[in-house]
Design brief:
This protein is of the alpha/beta class and 306 residues long. 42% of the residues lie in helices and 22% in strands. It contains ten helices and 14 strands.
């Protein structure tokens, strides 16, 4: 397993770190446009190998895509991060050009690569990657739902006063402050619906805190978060590497599923060695369908800016 991470900033370096620590990849390539930056990050991470007990090799390179040749999976984190007060959608002008260029360079060196898109606005960047490359829909995955679901579980566990490992919950829809659809009615605490423990008011608070999870961190940190995004990416890559057939909500190109077409948006997907093995159509309530449709309309408006 060879994994390339494009962008050696905080998110990219965290992706590489978590992938290395989980020790399922033979080689991880960090690539960045800033001279020496990826090389320095790679060296720093390699000096943790004996301390963290991994055998993966991490190499860094400055804008040399030949070093990425033969990658099984490539993660695109490159682009400008959010600043306080910015929406993910406001990043589209700069990041669209970067993502298109990067995707084309990756495929030139690794024709069979599976691409995971992290750059924001993520759903639109995943859609752009589809349009720019023409890859089969299973080989482009937008990482948003896995992160949003982790944040949802964190907020639910906080409200319930329990361990996060006791919670199973999912967020679908667009990866935006207004587009997320946390499926609170389907969330469970060890198989018991969380709605049996939480009042409607508390449920609403958890949902809203989840939707602004990224903005909350951006306000506190002065830039986008990186630990949880990096961990979310590493789990997707591990599911591909191990062909584990795990279900994650991911931004996938829809062709009629959920009544939506020509759009990449977060829906439950089975992830395995071929990338998106299957899009799972779950039963949604009328209210959930309405929210997903509204979310799709929002994503489509951003896509139109391309």
């Amino acid at each position: 397993m060879k994994v390339t991470v494009v962008g050696a900033g905080a998110v990219g370096a965290s992706c590489a770190e978590y992938i290395a620590i989980k020790d399922f990849a033979e080689e991880i390539v960090l690539i960045d446009i800033k001279e020496g930056f990826a090389e320095g990050k790679a060296m720093d991470l390699m000096q943790t190998a004996s301390l963290n007990g991994f055998d993966s090799t991490i190499v860094g390179t400055t804008n040399d895509y030949t070093k990425t040749a033969g990658s099984d999976v490539a993660v695109i984190t490159s682009g400008i991060p959010r600043k306080p007060g910015m929406t993910r959608e406001e990043l589209i002008g700069i990041n669209a050009g970067i993502v298109k260029d990067v995707a084309e360079k990756l495929i030139a060196e690794s024709p069979n690569v599976i691409i995971i898109v992290v750059s924001n606005p993520m759903d639109t960047m995943a859609y752009l990657a589809h349009k720019a490359t023409g890859l089969p829909k299973n080989r482009i995955i937008g990482m948003g739902g896995a992160l949003d679901s982790a944040r949802f579980k964190y907020r639910l566990a906080e409200a319930l006063g329990c361990a996060q490992s006791d919670i199973s919950a999912m967020v679908i829809g667009g990866h935006s402050d207004t587009g997320m659809v946390p499926l609170v009615d389907k969330a469970v605490r060890n198989s018991v619906p969380v709605t049996e423990f939480l009042s409607e008011e508390k449920q609403a608070e958890v949902v809203e805190a989840t939707k602004v999870g990224g903005a909350t961190l951006t306000k506190l940190l002065g830039t986008s978060a990186w630990y949880a995004p990096g961990a979310a990416v590493s789990e997707l890559v591990r599911a591909i590497a191990l062909d584990s057939q795990k279900m994650f909500p991911c931004s996938a190109l829809l062709e009629g599923e959920y009544g939506l077409s020509d759009i990449s948006i977060g829906v439950p997907c089975i992830i395995g060695k071929n990338g998106i093995e299957k899009i799972v159509e779950i039963e949604l309530s009328d209210a959930e369908k309405e929210k997903l449709t509204a979310s799709a309309e929002g994503v489509s408006k951003v896509n139109a800016l391309l």
